[in-house]
Amino acid sequence: MVLLHVKRHDREFLFETSVAEKADNVARQLVELFNLRLKIGRLAEQAEQLAKHGPSKKPDFQGLPDDMKDLTLDEEKVEWVKPDNYKPDPTARRTGAAPEDSVAQVILKTVSEAKESTSNDLVSKKTLTTRALLQNALDGLKGAIMIAYPEGLPEYDPVRQILDDTEVLEGAPSQEILDIESTTMWWAGKEILREQKMGDRVGKNEKTKIVVKLQKKGQGAPSREPLIDQKTQEEMMSYYHKKQEEMKVTELKMIF
Length: 256
Known about the structure:
The protein is built from 8 helices and 7 strands, in the order ββαββαααααββαβα. 44% of the residues lie in helices and 13% in strands. The protein folds into 2 domains: 214 residues, no CATH class; 31 residues.
């Protein structure tokens, strides 16, 4: 199988395919995985806040202090009662009605596991990213949240919106999403055309490993890979500075 080291900006993962596979199919699979990793990242972030500070406030009440008295907003009287496990949200977006600590720990443990499934560290561990791996992480988060909130979350809570696919992304998060129809794949400075088979570009050797970069339509060729990786560069710089210090010491000894 051909091993693809897939990259886009600061995100990367490993994926296996075949030289006989159509490039269009590969592109679609990579985009699906890339976007699913983003979704799990957003869900993990919001689930963590849910575990710490409880469900979201209604949109009109977000940013307002929890304990405001005699507040009327849109003709709705607000009567605040301190929750049993009150853990106020510094951003004032969530109610502070956190779940029981034991339940919160279940969510946080699942969040940690989900983050591991989308971590760039999987590359150094030589772990492939698959649909099954990511779906398992997504199902785990959903299950933990259902345990904590069996009656469900309000429709305006970001966690529910992500799970229901009703979230409206704005700003940077919306720009990260890739289009499954138009995203392009690049290797060695050249585009892998969707009408090709992978073998048309990478050859017939199934043991090939290549770095594939994903680009949005119209962005052109991505920047080339550096000749040396960051770790090697840091080691070289450290060695260079060490040698400089040694030379200074030697020069001082020669003077005195």
